[in-house]
Amino acid sequence: MTALPLILACAGVAFVFLAALGVVRMPDLYARMQAASKAATLGVALVAVAAAVHFGDGGVTWRVVLAVLLLFVTAPVAAHAIARAAYRSGVPLAGEAVIDELGASEGRPRPARPDTSATETEPASAEPPPAEP
Question: Is the separation of the CB atoms in 44 and 72 below 8 Å?
């Protein structure tokens, strides 16, 4: 019965590592918070379940179940509240952001997007193409 806790703990550590990698690699605060809250929550839960399986005691198992439920309820709510506060205080979205649903629901004007119709290999020209005969 030592293989299952080891697998669960390794999976949990992998998710926590992916959360840390997401925090480093994501372009803006909102994407970083998403990576940290979702992956780290699952990773910590897997490590806690691994501890419960390892000890096998009913008291430890109930404590882990309650802690994981509390974590699953509070972590997303806290991340949402922090992201909403950051948005309202003016932290900008990444340049790649396409949709601003919160701004639209609160009546904020949509930010101007740069023209992305021209590709890098074909620059946009001011003159129209010549007409074919």
Answer: no
